[in-house]
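Fill-in record for CaiB/BaiF CoA transferase family protein.
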Amino acid sequence: MTAGPLEGIRVLEVGTMLAGPYATMMLADLGAEVTKIEPPGGDISRQVSDAYFASLNRGKRSVRLDLTTSDGQAGLGELAADAHALLVNLKPSAIHRLGLTYDALRKWNDRIVCVALTGYGLAAGDEPAFDYVVQAATGVAALTGDPDGPPTLPGYSSADNSSGLTAALGLLAHIVSGHGGQVEVSLRDVMLSQLNYRASAYLNEGVEPRRLPLGAHSFYVPAQLFPTAEGYLALFITHDGFWKSFAAEAGLQGFPTMAERAERREEVLAAVTDALAGDTAASWEARLRPLGVPAAAVRTLRQALAATPEAVVTAGDFRLVRSPVRVAGYEPDYGPPPRLGEHDVSGAVVES
């Protein structure tokens, strides 16, 4: 097997919980050497559970430094002198106070790339910016759920995960540029960016987004969840070819064009709902997939993992989901999460 595409890239992380650690774990999976700088008591995510910590920190090194002390700052400088990048997700005030910006670290290494992953930006203050709060603040929660029900949040940390991936992209882009500097990524900006076509429709055409039943798409019809004889089916008909194949299999006639299906939405949805009620979600998936029609039965996490055993890897004592990035000729070495301070320099002072 070839070396990872990021072999030789050295990344420092001062991260907590999810967004920052997820970003650097994606880099570690691709071969980067990631050193997690932890306070003497460790990243607080270690207190959640061992499995939680492992899911975000496999394959990293752990060094303890008390960055509030002169010894800790000296240790940070030594690490920065030999690093390509630092990624940090803390409050802006802490990032500045602990010297985790490019302006603070350039004296050690003027080619280092410093990525600040915050809620609203380095200059925006310390407003609380947890995943759910940002989803509420950016309109995502208001867009989600049935129209007669309350706003709804996804069942996983979509803002944190999306922001982590964006931060990793920004970090690599600046490394490729060949010179050091500061990169900023905020959870707010990432979630607004991911509202792309919704925001564009509003900004350019004045179209206010609205919630539709069963997560229906605002234009494509039928494109939503449907109840079946057993379970729910996600059906996503985006063009007339898909509709022709689906309609033939489901015994439906009429509504041949996308425009007509959009105009006669309620009639189409009623007809599709009646047709799908005659079989189970799993059976419809099996019938429609060979025809090239986008459809999937709604699965639980247990069912989804059972259906994709190749997605599960072993990292030390933990079974985890593999990296989503697959590089030809390279298979990541999924190392275990580090023990706290496992890679401390002998004799280093970690606390005041």
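KEY FINDING: The CA atoms of residues 120 and 186 lie 5 Å apart.
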